[in-house]
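Renewal narrative, Specific Aim 1. Our central claim is that a sequence can be written position by position from structural information alone. The example that follows is taken directly from our test logs and has not been curated for this report. It begins with the C-alpha cells describing the chain, in the order in which they were read.
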C-alpha cells in the first residue's frame, strides 16, 4: 500500500543518500528517497544477462510454480480431510444410535434392516490373526503390534469385541460380503479363509493395487474389487484383475458407470448417507450402494 502511494508522489531532489529495501511482493530491490519517501527505482531481483542468469531465473520460476502446486495440493488435502472428519463424526453418531462399527451387532442389524450384506475391514494382529477392524488402532492399541488376546482384553463390553475373519465368514456366508483388506502381507490368509467357507456372494477389495494383484496371483478364481477415493486411484481400475470397481460417491457419474459396465465389471459406490444421493446413484445404474445408515438406505430404495 505504501509503495503504490509512493509511485504517485512527485520526485524531489534530496541531499541524503538513497536507501534500499526489498519489495515484499517480488523480492526486487527498491531505491527510496529518505526525505520524500518516493521510490526512485525498482530493480529486479534477477537481471538475466548471461546464460547462467537465465538458468537462475528459470529455476526461480520453477520453484515458484512448485510452491503454487504444493499450496494447491495442501488445499485439496484439507478439503478431503474435512470430508473424512465429517464421515467419522457421522459414523460415531450411527454407533451411538445403532451399534458399534465392525461388530457382530452392527452386521446383524444391517441384515435386519433389509440390506443384502455389508462391508467390513480386515487387519492382522502380531500373532497373525485376521481381525475385523477399520482403524490401525483399536482402543488406543496398534493392531499389528498386539496379540488378539490383548486387543480383546481392551474391550469393555462383549458386543464391542472385534471378531475374526473366520467368524464373519462362517456366520454370514449366505449374505453379500465386501471384504476390504487394509494391509499388505495377509493375502494368502484371507484367500484361504474365503476358499474354506466359499461365501455365496462376496468380493475382496482393497485400496492397495499390490494387494489386489497378489490376491489374484494366490488364487485367480477369487472375486476381487478395486477401491478408489481419488481420481488418481480410479484410473487404475482397467489394469487391475477386479470384477468390481468401488469408487467413492464423489467420483460417480453416468459416463463412468456406463464405461465400467461396458467392460463387463460391476459398480459399487460408497459411502452414501443422503437419500437424494442414494436415489441418484440408483438411477445411474450402480450394482450396489454402501451406507452407514442401512435402515435409511433400504427405506429410500424401497419407496
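The sequence written for that structure reads:
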Amino acid at each position: 500500500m505504501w509503495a503504490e502511494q509512493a509511485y504517485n508522489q512527485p520526485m524531489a531532489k534530496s541531499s541524503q543518500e538513497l536507501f534500499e529495501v526489498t519489495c515484499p511482493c517480488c523480492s526486487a530491490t527498491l531505491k527510496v528517497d529518505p526525505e520524500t519517501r518516493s521510490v526512485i527505482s525498482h530493480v529486479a531481483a534477477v537481471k538475466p544477462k548471461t546464460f547462467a542468469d537465465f538458468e537462475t531465473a528459470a529455476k526461480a520460476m520453477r520453484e515458484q510454480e512448485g510452491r503454487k502446486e504444493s499450496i494447491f495440493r495442501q488445499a485439496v488435502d484439507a478439503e478431503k480431510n474435512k470430508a473424512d472428519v465429517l464421515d467419522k463424526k457421522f459414523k460415531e453418531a450411527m454407533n451411538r444410535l445403532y451399534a458399534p462399527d465392525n461388530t457382530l451387532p452392527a452386521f446383524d442389524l444391517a441384515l435386519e434392516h433389509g440390506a443384502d450384506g455389508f462391508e467390513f475391514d480386515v487387519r492382522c494382529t502380531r500373532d497373525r490373526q485376521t481381525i475385523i477392524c477399520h482403524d490401525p488402532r483399536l482402543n488406543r492399541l496398534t493392531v499389528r503390534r498386539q496379540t488378539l488376546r490383548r486387543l480383546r482384553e481392551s474391550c469393555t463390553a462383549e458386543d464391542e469385541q472385534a471378531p475374526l475373519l473366520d467368524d464373519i465368514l462362517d456366520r454370514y456366508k449366505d449374505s453379500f460380503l465386501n471384504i476390504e483388506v487394509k494391509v499388505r502381507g495377509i493375502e494368502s490368509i484371507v484367500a484361504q479363509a474365503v476358499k474354506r467357507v466359499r461365501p455365496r456372494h462376496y468380493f475382496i477389495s482393497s485400496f492397495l493395487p499390490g494387494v489386489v494383484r497378489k490376491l489374484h496371483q494366490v488364487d485367480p478364481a477369487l472375486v476381487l474389487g478395486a477401491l478408489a477415493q481419488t481420481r488418481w486411484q480410479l484410473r487404475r481400475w482397467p489394469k487391475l484383475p477386479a470384477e468390481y470397481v468401488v469408487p467413492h460417491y464423489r467420483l460417480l457419474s453416468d459416463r463412468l458407470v456406463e464405461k465400467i459396465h461396458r467392460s463387463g465389471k460391476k459398480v459399487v459406490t460408497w459411502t452414501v448417507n443422503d437419500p437424494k444421493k442414494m436415489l441418484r446413484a440408483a438411477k445411474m445404474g450402480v450394482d450396489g450402494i454402501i451406507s452407514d445408515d442401512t435402515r435409511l438406505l433400504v427405506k429410500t430404495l424401497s419407496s
